[in-house]
């Protein structure tokens, strides 16, 4: 059976999915799995698409100390027990920089160029690239495709793309990229089936999870995003602050004596909901907590979503639909309800019963703006992009890249 393997690697986990390739390029999900607890309590878990368990195994720390070791364990299980021998492997890569505006077949040169953006996405980029290097070293004939979270936002016009800094810096790549693009691309492709009347109109999508951002879409394309040069900007996140006066960074450097690397670690790991609450970076724990600081963190999260929705509505000159997606957006009816209250001035009104049931359409019949909950599927997008490159006749010896 022909198949596509999708890999999404983080600092402490490697998530993978396998899609069967059926007639006329149709993809069918076969397996979902992950190796988590890398370097602490490694564990391999996998199930069939219907959630029937296939594997659940613990390993000693020294067996899986890093991402390459996790890839080796997952790969051996897929080959030897699941009997999976993929046609190609698709990867999520967070930052494509100014060079890459579409998925690309990967070689050592591409990896070297993508390494330049590690400092722009230090929580993600190094770990995204680790499995690519591992497969290049051990299985060099298997085509690999990098799919970028920044690519969907390359349709931004110059006003949304620039900072008010000298043009030379923009030419060097200091610009507003936007992230979570694979998620937004999936929503854009799903909306014509879910809500054909508004799919090509003015839509705000809120990707709310441990990483959080919002995107303004028109005609199915991104026109503005809350994130910019790095994944620190915009909404507060689990451990990242969101919008921050650059003067705060200067203060940390000059007055607190922090080094650049200390500031980077602080902004990516110790801020956001975790820093504001002092309790947790997990929204579920914060909502359940009676701690006043936890309440402040939740209130702040909702408040900033409301502010950024206003900004995106201004960019669109109105709004015809609002979509919630990702972990918090898909699962927290209370956050959705509170955000909807913030958006009442735009004509948003929820149906409490439909919201509690996590229905697809959760707005009231009287709402001027329909509100949807659409589960995202970044892995399916990666598999589709990977298959498309293969079907277009590209091979490891016929690599193409779009450099802008």
Strand order of the largest sheet: 5-4-3-2-1-6-8-7
Strand-residue fraction? Answer: 15-25%
Number of helices: 15
Mean pLDDT across every amino acid position: 92
Shape: globular
Q: Please give the oligomerization state of what you see.
A: single chain
Give the terminus-to-terminus CA distance.
Answer: 38 Å
Which structural class do the helices and strands define? alpha/beta
Quick one: biggest sheet?
8 strands, mixed
Order of helices and strands: EEEEEHEEHHEHHHEEEHHHHHEHHHEH
Q: Count the beta strands.
A: 13
Unreliably modeled segments: 395-404
User: Which percent range fits the helix content?
Assistant: 25-40%
Radius of gyration: 21 Å
Describe the structure.
By secondary structure, the protein is of the alpha/beta class. Helix content is 37%, strand content 20%. The strands form two sheets. An eight-stranded mixed beta sheet has the order 5-4-3-2-1-6-8-7, with helices on both faces. A five-stranded mixed beta sheet has the order 11-10-9-12-13, sandwiched between helices. Helix 1 crosses helix 3 and helix 11 packs across helix 13. It starts with a strand and ends in a 13-residue tail after the last helix. The C terminus is likely disordered. It catalyses: acetate + ATP = acetyl phosphate + ADP. Catalyzes the formation of acetyl phosphate from acetate and ATP. Can also catalyze the reverse reaction. It is found in: Cytoplasm. Belongs to the acetokinase family. It comes from Bradyrhizobium yuanmingense.
